[in-house]
Specification:
This protein is α/β, with parallel strands linked by helices and 162 residues long. The chain has one domain: 3-Layer(aba) Sandwich (Aminopeptidase). It has 7 helices and 4 strands; from the N terminus they run H-H-E-E-H-H-E-H-E-H-H. A 4-stranded mixed beta sheet has the order 1-4-2-3. Helix 1 (2-9) crosses helix 7. The protein is globular and about 45 Å long. The protein starts with a helix and ends in an 8-residue tail after the last helix.
């Protein structure tokens, strides 16, 4: 949500709608994801891209991509901008995230931040998994990467290949 807030604070006007969705229950059956798919499956052709962030808040180092290889070339200017903060890497993956899996299966190009996850599982899904473990600077870096990626995707001239 902070990524959308950043875009709004900067008075940026994307060419395409950026939809921010927050659901829960991934660990208990993906109810939010399944409901979104049920409600919107007839609209998949209008979904330009999907971006999930569900890997904690470690320092971002780039973007995971599930899609055609041509996407990397299309995002080269974005990678160049993100490289200044050390987040310009790209990595092709077979699966971006459970929360956007229905869109992945419908061939909607999917993305997620690549994050330094060395410490993610020190707390993840434990009683110690509390907000005080978040490093504010790293959370801000993640918000910036997601905002840049979302805004850039929303402004691409050509559709992403499917």
């Amino acid at each position: 949500m902070e990524a959308a807030n950043l875009i709004q604070k900067l008075h940026l006007k994307p060419k395409r709608t950026i939809r921010v969705i927050a659901w829960m229950n991934e660990e208990n059956g993906l109810a939010g994801s399944k409901q979104y798919a049920k409600d919107h499956e007839k609209e998949w052709s209008n979904h330009f891209a999907a971006l999930e962030t569900d890997g904690g808040a470690g320092h971002p180092i780039g973007l995971n991509i599930k899609g055609k290889f041509e996407i990397k070339k299309m995002l080269a200017p974005v990678s160049a901008v993100l490289q200044e903060s050390g987040a310009g890497g790209t990595n092709f993956v077979d699966h971006v995230g459970a929360d956007i899996e229905p869109m992945e299966k419908a061939n909607v190009p999917a993305f997620s931040p690549i994050q330094d996850s060395r410490f993610y599982f020190n707390y993840h899904h434990t009683a110690a998994d509390t907000l005080d473990k978040i490093v504010p600077k790293e959370l801000a870096e993640n918000s910036a990467v997601v905002a840049v990626a979302a805004y850039a995707l929303a402004n691409l001239e050509q559709p992403l290949p499917r």
